[in-house]
Amino acid sequence: MVVCSVVGARPQFIKAAPVGKALRAAGHTEVLVHTGQHYDDEMSAVFFRELDIPEPDYNLGVGSGSHGWQTGQILMRLEEVLLKEKPDWVLVYGDTNSTLAGALAACKLRIPLAHVEAGLRSFNREMPEEHNRVLTDHCSDLLFCPTQTAVDNLAKEGITKGVHLVGDTMYDAVLQFGEIARQRSMILQDLGLKSKGYLLATVHRPYNTDNPENLRNILAAFAEIGESIIFPVHPRTRERIAEFGLNNPKSEFRNPKFIDPVGYLDMLVLEQHARMILTDSGGMQKEAYFFGVPCVTLRPETEWVETVESGWNVVVGASRAQIVNAVDGREWPQATRPPMFGDGQAAHRIVARLMEGLSV
Which secondary structure element, helix H or strand E, spans residue 258, and what is its range? Predict the structure, then answer.
């Protein structure tokens, strides 16, 4: 079996690593295509090294651009690869422009398509990611869902054929790389941090980075909280902070400790040892849950409603007051977390379903 895996952004590298490993272990061929959506070392190459992902067979080198331009470029360049490789399956991950372009390329060439992390819904059509995930699900022949909620979402849209509840490959990755991270990472020592003695923050969604008021409110809340906040800054976020004049030396926002983006292993350690995580990242919401770290979601909604229903995550948007109140005035659960994201074997189930799908 030949599987063409299409990845292009940091979370996809993490999701794809266990699946690629399972494919190779079962004797199958993976043609790995990196679209270049994330293209600098801090957001791309370091993840391939740390996750022991083979060098991509193809790097499309698309880079940044508007949503339409980026999606179109990936679609055109990927089509050439698929015509050459003729894979049995195209495998796409998550909800990025790379995901949608991969789905469209496969459909146009009538190559079977499988979507990992299918069925997620924010129900916010202002998010580009929501359109990407909905369109990809409706194109897919196999839909690999991480949770029962995702399965239910698809059923409400009339999608029941080819739907499989397999668990979350990010949970697979945490189980596979968590101990390696603890052994190798020196990030706590390098930053002079003590376990549970800091908060960890990330901001990268357009809802926050492209809205000056939202970004200002978030930074103001961080300053008001008064605790040590470690803030690995996404390149786009750093650009917007400068563009909106929020990094002026006379700025009121002094409190967060801005650091460059870190690799996967360092991030796992920072997450595990944080007292709390503040983020607009879907992946970090889950990882916070995996590690039993309270999470404050800096968006008005979340796809991972299970984490909210369990009490481990609270959605506050970009409200300065709500962010501060969530950090300072909220009681968090102490009980064991329900195992809602599978048992760490999602990747093996995905490979088995891909093999079964060839015989249908």
Answer: strand 257-259
For residue 149, give both structure tokens. Answer: 């909620």
- Whether 204 sits among the annotated catalytic residues: the reply is yes
Structural domains of the chain ordered from first start: 2-168+342-358 (3.40.50.2000), 176-329 (3.40.50.2000)
Pairing of strands 276-279, 295-297: parallel
Q: Which two tokens stand for residue 28?
A: 């199958």
Give the contacts of 198 (CB within 8 A, at least 6 positions apart): 227, 228, 229, 230, 273, 274, 275
Beta strands, E only, 52-182: 58-59, 89-93, 113-116, 142-145, 163-165
Annotated catalytic residue within 204, 234, 273, 348:
204
pLDDT for 126-151, tens place per residue?
888 999 999 999 999 999 999 999 99
In 3D space, the residue among 331, 282, 297, 283 whose CA is nearest the CA of residue 311 turns out to be 331
Q: Could you read off the pLDDT of 108-121 as tens digits, one per residue? A: 999 999 999 999 99
Residue 253, pLDDT score: 57
